[in-house]
Amino acid sequence: MTAAFTASGDVGDYDASVQALVRRVIADGAGVDAAAVKLTLAAGSVAITCVVAAVTPAAATSIASTLASGIFASEEALQTALTAGGVNDVTVAAIIRTPSVDGDVSSPSEAGVDGLLVTAIVLSSSAIVLAFVLLYVRFVAAKKDAQPQARPSELKLPWKIDEEAAPPVPAAKELGASGRGPCYSPVRVAADV
After folding, report:
1. Contact 90, 80 (CB under 8 A)
2. 0.70 cut: is pTM over it?
3. Are 5 and 95 in contact (CB under 8 A)?
4. Where are the domains of the chain?
5. Rounded Cα gap, residues 60 and 58, in angstroms
6. How far apart are CA 73 and CA 76, in angstroms?
7. What is the rounded distance in angstroms from the CA atom of residue 163 to the CA atom of residue 160?
8. Torsion sign over Cα 17, 21, 27, 31
9. What is the DSSP secondary structure assignment for residue 165, as one 8-state letter?
10. pLDDT tier, 10 (very low <50, low <70, confident <90, very high otherwise)
């Protein structure tokens, strides 16, 4: 729903606090929250365009009707509402656009409802998938921890070393005069059959 009016002064006269008061007055007149009202200011005295977001076309039509018969019924009615709302330094010159429903409002998706719903569904689905992945990883880790780990001394090898058949490792004196390295001996392995 869109409506517009011109007011006295320059665009610079309408700081954030004045704009907040104007939004509050329009919102109260429309019966909506101030967050649903957007103002656009332009030069030419000060042309103030008010856009009130509505979820459905029926709601937009209802808001337009309420404003048209209420605070936008005349310049005097709008001036009275602005003054009552604390906007004291503004004089309404003319209503240049009566409250009307824009022709492009045809579905809730244009009001951003579908986009928000899709975003919520995607985020919640992602969170559920992430939760399942984390549970699976934890389950696998718990299962792995539950299996006993064998110590090297407990390992059973399929063969055994016959220590009696293997010649003893020579002492350092037996390495020879050069002393250049170890003397390797073959180790005999007996199959455990």
Report:
1. no
2. no
3. yes
4. 2-107, 112-146
5. 5
6. 8
7. 9
8. positive
9. T
10. confident
